[in-house]
Design goal:
- The protein has 3 domains: 67 residues, no CATH class; 81 residues; 168 residues, Orthogonal Bundle (hpI Integrase, Chain A), CATH 1.10.443.
- It is built from 14 helices and 5 strands.
- Helix 7 runs antiparallel to helix 9 and helix 12 crosses helix 13.
């Protein structure tokens, strides 16, 4: 049977040879250099001959795999970077942040170094999941880590780097369904009145309380995103932007007078509203210190500002559909899931208000 993919050797200096593949696909000549080398010396020793035979056998195996790909797939052989590391691909997907860097470190600790993307298989996936579970992270953190791992594996499957079997029955990590924690109106007032380590952190946190913006959206907010009639028009990074950073939807969010006072006098459109805002983990330290000084025993963090707005709106009679839109949730079901304890309290209160029949 005629070979479709041919195995060839390119002669190099010092009597070395480099194996490469040669095939025709869609009317175009294609080459793949395997980075497998043999000794072409005229009188090789027995050990060199054995080494050459082993390398040739490996090259032939790869050739057979490529030929099968070309026969089975209507798109032919997909050119894959077989030397791209798993963490390299992971870092190209989504927004760079502390969690991404931490996940890369955990991966390298688990396997004693990085792993080529093409070598990822179900065994390694399960090994890594067990590693981060045993590390002692919260369920929410594990869920966040695991979403990034799955996105990386899925990206590899789509371009042919990873065996599709890795996505079949991919281990699922459920998000914990714990009641959200939030600040009361009195606690927000206390947070406003204490001395903060950095005033920019105080302003950014309170702005999030009044708008429900996530840290990532507060950090990138520019004056050009705020209209003359005091609306923010922006794409929410988590729910309205794709992995490449392009927006596919926008939120139009009104600012109340407290939010307007927090941001102060308008600057040039291209300037950040909160200049020199510290990293998320640093601002959380500032928030925790302020809460402690205010006598608040809760574990206060930046994202609690978002929950505070959602809870306060629901408790003050705003319908859940409106709250969902203001927070930028993809569906009302998402809002109901996060604030189930609040909606249950409102339902109980409504039932108790029923007159006697």
């Amino acid at each position: 049977m005629k070979q479709i993919v041919k195995l060839r050797v390119k002669k190099l200096a010092d009597n070395q040879g480099s194996y490469y593949l040669d095939w025709c696909q869609n009317g175009k000549r294609n080459y793949e250099y395997l980075k497998l080398y043999i000794d072409l010396s005229p009188n090789p020793s027995r050990d060199v001959k054995k080494q050459n035979e082993a390398v040739e056998q490996l090259a032939q195996t790869i050739r057979n795999q490529r030929e099968n790909e070309l026969i089975k797939s209507p798109w032919g052989i997909k050119k894959v970077n077989r030397y791209e590391m798993f963490t390299e691909r992971l870092c190209t997907l989504g927004v760079k942040c502390y969690d991404q860097r931490r996940l890369c470190t955990l991966f390298k600790e688990c396997f004693g170094g990085d792993v080529p993307l093409v070598e990822m298989d179900r065994e390694k996936i399960l090994t890594f999941l067990k590693y981060i579970v045993d590390y002692g992270y919260s369920q929410a953190s594990i869920k966040g880590f695991w979403n990034r791992v799955k996105s990386t594996i899925k990206s590899g499957v789509l371009d042919g780097s990873v065996n599709p079997e890795c996505l079949r029955d991919f281990p699922n990590v459920k998000r914990p369904n714990n009641p959200v924690t939030y600040l009361t109106a009195e606690e927000v007032t206390k947070m406003k009145n204490v001395k903060w380590i950095k005033d920019t952190s105080r302003r950014a946190f309170l702005f999030a309380v009044y708008t429900g913006l996530r840290y990532c959206d507060v950090k990138k907010l520019r004056w050009g995103d705020i209209t003359s009639d005091k609306f923010i028009v922006f794409a929410q990074q988590k729910t309205q932007m794709d992995a490449t950073g392009n927006a596919y939807a926008y939120t139009r969010l009104p600012l109340n007078h407290q939010a307007v006072e927090i941001i102060g006098e308008r600057k040039a459109d291209n300037e950040l509203v909160f200049r020199k805002l510290v990293r998320n983990e640093t601002i959380n330290k500032h928030i925790h210190a302020a809460a402690k000084d205010a006598g608040i025993e809760k574990n206060v963090h930046f994202h609690m500002a978002r929950h505070t707005l959602g809870v306060q709106l629901l408790c003050n009679g705003v319908e859940i559909y409106t709250v969902s839109k203001l927070l930028g949730h993809k569906s009302v079901q998402t809002t109901a899931k996060f604030y189930s304890n609040i909606t249950e309290e409102k339902a109980l209160d409504a039932i108790n208000k029923l007159p006697e029949f």
